[in-house]
């Protein structure tokens, strides 16, 4: 008995797990796991496509297959002497499904139901069961990937696949059919034709040009003439894979004359498809290696005015144009001739190069416009290439155009943008606060840069008042003109802060918020703005990105990005979308213009002054690589000098600012409720108010106190109110803007090398903060509670004071007194205490004798809730005795009407 007869009765039971592909395990009849190396040869016994299993993948005891592999291998019994069965009924169902899918892939009717949208392939509901449709679409997608094709190319191969399946182009015993592309001779056209060669030969045959119109049965050589019907059918099948061929005669070998543009289209698409199905493609050897080249334009700029002292930013400049292509200098006449010829492939010296003829025409148009349009120095400072040019040039390419300023113009730039010589602008009379001296400088800088047409980045440290400087600027701008509104884009967590600060410092500004499910969309957006005529529109990064079509309809008076590091990743859709918004003046506000990489700085500058820091590839070569890899001090200084005119950065440690700052600054951080919190809040209030009407005075007091605690926990996070366990930061943070803002702020403080205290009344809130900060920032954050032994408590305080960890969470009662924590420069109150003295005692853990640094106190308040209303009441009652507001007991003395007003959620 031979080996295969010995194995004849062997059965392998397969466990099949479906994810993106298939993972398969095998067991024998005894239930023992069998390694793939034992049973895989039988599965791939007849599979030439994988070289009989040589290219298959295993992962431990699993065989990994794509959907296309699975269908191909199991559509029939792979081996005569070995049987594969499903271990469970669901495994058997997968094996049976392989045959059905194979039949469907060979069904011409399938392709009437295949839909392609972008990179997604789907089968409409008119074809088979949903499970089969999903399997089919996955299988088709994987077949394309295996051939190196994309979903967008599926329509071009559909006829071929309907006819022959996914197999290579069918071969013949007598000849090989191919396509041949030949370069121009004396005329300007390429030739593209279908050619033949013998199976063992290497020379292609095609009819001479004068006989190219003769039919197959007359023009073919004698040895192939009897195969003219087969040749005719194969040519039709081959040309179905060429999108560039839209018509061909059926009775003769295909021959056509092509332009450069048609050749380029063939190389970009058709050649890839033909080669994927095994068709020979013959093209000139130099064409395979040809590199796309671009004409580089250098413009030396000079001003007619020779004395820099009298030159202004609006001074008209003149250009001296110079051209080069692959290192070869071109005259203006050479350049004009190149454009006029309108060719994609040209010979320079002894080499062929490819150029983008459309781009050449755009360059010529720009040069003519520049010579005719009287560009100014201001235009040139930012390489003000027309927008159509920017669309033609990918972000990762070198600049096509370089502008070089002469020495006097460079000196002018340095002088005009020196922030010490800024013209004074009167502070708007309707600004409801006083600006400190450094804030006045920031205001003057904002106004000056607007008047000169430059975007800027205001990068003051947290707590120095970027918000109030911008509000003063908005009052000035909208006090001078009545036009389009200004746009402010900010993180969702600080949207409420902006509303409150604008209302507090600039009540004369009309502000609308573009946020929430009821916000106007489409044409209603512009109609709403025309009706309301606001000065300022507030929105969030997420909404600005999703409603990009609406936002891009307007040319805004100014566009401000708060926390501009939100666009730091240049490749995200949100960043790319927002950087395209158009306004008279672009402003970025951020305390951290660079968090990790210099590319973040580039992204911000791409918004405020597009093109000033070059295109990203040149920026990488000039600055990122030398600085981040080689720590080049020379390039650091060059980058500092380049960005300095457009970046205003002040820190709390600046000696010039120390005298102008208070020792302690308290700030309310307003956070909106999420829809989930708002629904729970309103439900709780309604239930409690109804119960109060039936209770006695003593019972009502107890209910009020109980409700106060529930509302405060709900304002912190719904999981505290619902008594839910911690899951993950990804799930927990979106449910509470307050929690998300505290975690983000604490993380930013730690990343800047500072330390902070976080006070909360609730153990659950402390644990939420602890776990989220650890998960997102990797900090082991201690939580000091009343149950902590004194020795451990003292050890943690000493460690914090010596800088061993940056964030310290404390229970308000346990950590509110008796501790010295002066290493902290920030104090965050997660939830409000009804007695201001208790909060102040907690703050004084950092703001006390021995504190030599500025202390920034953040008190978090949820908008429209009892937290905001109590804060307002406490402000009004400041003149009352401390005895009156030592606890929450005073609230139980309010009337039913006052309590209802206090509890009601104000949207």
TrEMBL record:
Residues 738-903 form the Helicase C-terminal domain. It comes from the Bacteria. Pfam families: DUF3670, Helicase_C, SNF2-rel_dom. GO terms for molecular function: ATP binding; helicase activity; hydrolase activity. Residues 447-611 form the Helicase ATP-binding domain. InterPro entries: DUF3670, Helicase_ATP-bd, Helicase_C-like, P-loop_NTPase, SNF2-like_sf, SNF2/RAD54-like_C, SNF2_N. CDD domains: DEXQc_arch_SWI2_SNF2, SF2_C_SNF. Keywords: ATP-binding, Helicase, Hydrolase, Nucleotide-binding. This is DEAD/DEAH box helicase. It comes from Planococcus salinus. The lineage of its organism: Bacteria, Bacillati, Bacillota, Bacilli, Bacillales.
């Amino acid at each position: 008995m031979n080996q295969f007869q010995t194995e004849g009765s062997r059965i392998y039971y397969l466990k099949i797990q479906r994810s993106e592909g298939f993972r398969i395990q095998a067991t024998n009849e005894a239930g023992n796991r069998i390694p793939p190396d034992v049973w895989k040869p039988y599965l791939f016994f007849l599979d030439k496509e994988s070289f009989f299993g040589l290219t298959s993948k295993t992962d431990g005891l699993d065989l990994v297959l794509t959907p296309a592999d699975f269908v191909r291998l199991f559509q029939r019994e792979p081996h005569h002497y070995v049987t594969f069965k499903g271990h469970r009924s669901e495994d058997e169902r997968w094996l049976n499904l392989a045959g059905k899918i194979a039949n469907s892939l060979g069904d011409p009717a399938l392709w009437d139901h295949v839909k392609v949208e972008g990179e997604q392939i789907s089968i409409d509901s008119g074809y088979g069961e949903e499970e089969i449709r999903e399997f089919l679409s996955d299988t088709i997608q994987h077949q394309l990937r295996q051939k190196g094709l994309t979903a967008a190319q599926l329509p071009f191969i559909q006829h071929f696949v309907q006819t022959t399946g996914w197999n290579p182009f069918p071969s013949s015993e007598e000849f090989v059919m191919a396509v041949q592309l030949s370069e121009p001779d004396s005329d300007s056209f390429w030739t593209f034709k279908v050619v033949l060669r013998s199976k063992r030969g290497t020379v292609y045959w095609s009819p001479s040009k004068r006989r190219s119109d003769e039919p197959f049965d007359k023009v073919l050589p004698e040895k192939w003439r009897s195969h003219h019907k087969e040749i005719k059918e194969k040519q039709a099948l081959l040309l179905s894979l060429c999108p560039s061929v839209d018509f061909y005669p059926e009775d003769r070998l295909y021959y056509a004359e092509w332009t450069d543009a048609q050749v380029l289209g063939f190389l970009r698409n058709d050649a890839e498809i033909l080669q994927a199905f095994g068709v020979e493609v013959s093209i000139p050897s130099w064409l395979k290696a040809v590199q796309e080249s671009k004409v580089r334009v250098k413009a030396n700029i000079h001003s007619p005015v020779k004395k820099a002292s009298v030159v202004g930013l609006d001074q008209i400049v003149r250009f001296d144009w110079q051209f080069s292509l692959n290192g070869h200098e071109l005259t203006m006449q050479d350049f004009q001739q190149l454009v006029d010829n309108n060719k994609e492939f040209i010979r320079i010296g002894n080499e062929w190069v490819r150029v983008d003829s459309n781009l050449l025409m755009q360059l010529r148009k720009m040069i003519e416009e520049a010579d005719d349009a009287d560009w100014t120095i201001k235009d040139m400072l930012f390489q003000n290439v027309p927008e159509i040019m920017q669309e033609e040039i990918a972000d990762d390419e070198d600049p096509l155009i370089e502008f070089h300023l002469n020495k006097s113009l460079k000196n002018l730039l340095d002088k005009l943008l020196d922030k010490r010589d800024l013209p004074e602008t009167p502070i708007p009379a309707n600004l409801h606060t006083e600006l400190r001296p450094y804030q006045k400088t920031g205001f003057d800088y904002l106004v000056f840069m607007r008047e000169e047409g430059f975007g800027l980045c205001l990068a003051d440290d947290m707590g120095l008042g970027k918000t109030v400087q911008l509000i003063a600027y908005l009052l000035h701008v909208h006090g001078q003109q009545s036009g389009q509104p200004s746009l402010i884009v900010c993180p969702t967590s600080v949207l409420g802060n902006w509303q409150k600060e604008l209302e507090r410092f600039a009540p004369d500004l009309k502000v609308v918020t573009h946020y929430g499910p009821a916000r106007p969309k489409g044409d209603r957006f512009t109609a709403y703005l025309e009706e309301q005529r606001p000065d300022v529109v507030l929105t969030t990064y997420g909404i600005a990105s999703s409603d990009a079509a609406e936002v891009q309809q307007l040319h805004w008076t100014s566009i401000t990005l708060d926390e501009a590091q939100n666009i730091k990743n240049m490749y995200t859709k949100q960043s790319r979308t927002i950087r395209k918004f158009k306004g008279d003046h672009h402003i970025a506000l951020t305390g951290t213009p660079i968090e990790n990489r210099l590319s973040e700085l580039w992204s911000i500058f791409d918004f405020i002054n597009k093109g000033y820091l070059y295109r990203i590839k040149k920026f990488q070569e000039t600055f990122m690589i030398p600085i981040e890899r080689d720590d080049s001090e020379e390039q650091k200084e060059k980058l500092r000098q380049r960005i300095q005119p457009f970046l205003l950065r002040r820190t709390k440690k600046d000696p010039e600012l120390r005298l102008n700052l208070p020792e302690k600054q308290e700030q309310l951080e307003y956070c909106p409720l999420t829809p989930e919190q708002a629904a729970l809040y309103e439900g709780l209030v309604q239930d409690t108010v109804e119960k109060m009407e039936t209770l006695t005075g003593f019972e009502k007091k107890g209910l009020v106190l109980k409700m106060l605690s529930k509302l405060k926990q709900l304002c912190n996070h719904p999981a505290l109110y619902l008594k839910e366990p911690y899951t993950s930061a990804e799930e927990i943070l979106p449910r509470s803007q307050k929690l998300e803002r505290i975690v983000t702020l604490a993380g930013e403080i730690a990343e800047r090398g500072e330390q902070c205290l976080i006070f909360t009344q609730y153990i659950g809130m402390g644990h939420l903060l602890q776990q989220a900060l650890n998960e997102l920032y990797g900090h082991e954050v201690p939580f000091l509670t009343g149950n902590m032994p004194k020795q451990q408590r003292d050890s943690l305080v000493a460690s914090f004071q010596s800088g061993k960890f940056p964030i310290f969470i404390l229970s308000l009662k346990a950590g509110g007194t008796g501790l010295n924590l002066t290493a902290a420069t920030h104090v965050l109150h997660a939830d409000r205490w009804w007695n201001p003295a208790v909060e102040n005692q907690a703050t004084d853990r950092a703001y006390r004798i021995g504190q030599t640094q500025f202390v920034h106190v953040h008190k978090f308040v949820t908008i429209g809730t009892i937290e905001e209303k109590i804060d307002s009441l406490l402000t009004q009652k400041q003149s009352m005795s401390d005895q009156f507001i030592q606890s929450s007991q005073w609230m139980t003395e309010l009337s039913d009407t006052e309590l209802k007003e206090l509890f009601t959620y104000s949207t």
